[in-house]
Amino acid sequence: MAIKGEPARILVDVVIPAIDEERSIGRVLDDLPFERLREVVVVDNGSTDRTVAVAKKHGATVIHEPRRGYGSACLAGLAHLRAKAAPPTIVVFLDGDYSDHPDELPLLIDPIIEDRADLVIGSRMLGDNPRDALLPHSRFGNWLAGMMIRTLFGVPMTDLGPFRAIDWKRLEELEMEDVDYGWTVEMQAKAAQRGLRYLEVPASYRKRIGESKITGTLRGSVKASVKIVYTMLKLRQASSLSSFKS
Predict the structure, then answer these.
(1) Rg (CA), the chain
(2) Which run of H or E residues covers position 108?
(3) pTM (predicted TM-score)
(4) For a FRET experiment, which of 69, 115, 181, 206 has its CA 20 to 30 Å from that of 226?
(5) Per-residue confidence at 1, pLDDT binned at 50, 70, 90?
(6) Residue 153 has pLDDT above 90, yes or no
(7) Are strands 39-44 and 164-167 parallel, antiparallel or unpaired?
C-alpha cells in the first residue's frame, strides 16, 4: 500500500514467449531497460536448444509451459505474475526473436503511467521500417485484421503487433483465454468491446533472427489467418448475443 501523499510504485513486468530462440533471446534481454522493470519472464514453450540457459544468464526468470501455443505461453506468464505477492501495474509483451526493438519499451508504458491509455500497441505499420522486415502476407494480414476490427468493433487499428503494454487490472478484466494464434487479436477486440483507451505508437521493426514459427511457412500463415478471423467473428457474435439478451 502506498503511503498517503506519496505516488504509488509502478511495477512493470515483461512476458516473452520463446521457442528455440538461443541466438536472439540474449540480445532481446540486453536491450531491455531493466532499470524500469521489476521482472522479465521468459516462457519457454518447448525449446530444444539453449534458450533457457541464455535467458537465465541475461537476467530473466524462466518458466516452462509444455503446452505449445503463443497464447498458452502468454497465459503461463500471466499465471506466474498473478501468483506474486504484489501484482504488476503494467504488463509488456514482446517476442524473443529480436524483431522488436526492446529499448523502445518506454514508448509503450509511459502513456499508461501518464493515464492516457489502457492498452498501447507498438505498430509496425506506423513505424518507418524496412519493407522486408515484415513479409507481404503479414502486411496483408494486418491490413485485413485492422479493417475487420474497425468494421466489427468500431475502433481503428493498424497492427496486431506483439510488442504491447497493458494495464494489469484492465488485462484481468479481459479474461484472456486463446491458446495460440488468436491471442493478440483477442486482446485488441476485447479491449474495443469493453471501451479500453487504445493507443498505437510507431514501433521500429527488423527482420527476425531465425525463421518464424508462424509466418515463416505458408501453412503457419494460413492457420494464423484463419484463427484470427474466426476469433474476431466469435467475439462479435458473443457480443451481439449478450446485447440481445440484455
Answers:
(1) 17
(2) helix 105-113
(3) 0.87
(4) 206
(5) very low
(6) no
(7) unpaired
- One-letter amino acid identity for 197? R
| Residue 75, C-alpha cell as written in the block | 497465459
What pLDDT, on the 0 to 100 scale, is given for residue 55? 98
Rounded-to-integer distance, Cα 16 and Cα 162, Å: 10
Q: Are 101 and 203 in contact (CB under 8 A)?
A: yes
Q: Which residues, at least 6 apart from 172, have a Cβ–Cβ distance to it below 8 Å?
A: none
CA 80, chain centre distance (Å): 16
> pLDDT by residue (tens digit) across 74-105?
999 999 999 999 999 999 999 999 999 999 99
What average pLDDT does the chain have? 87
Model confidence at 243, in pLDDT bands (50, 70, 90)?
Answer: very low
Cell of 66: 509444455
Cell of 201: 505508437
Whether the Cβ atoms of residue 157 and residue 235 lie closer than 8 Å to each other = no
Q: Which of 195, 171, 194 is nearest to 183 (CA)?
A: 171
Superfamily of domain 12-241: Spore Coat Polysaccharide Biosynthesis Protein SpsA; Chain A (3.90.550.10)
Give the DSSP letter of residue 102: G
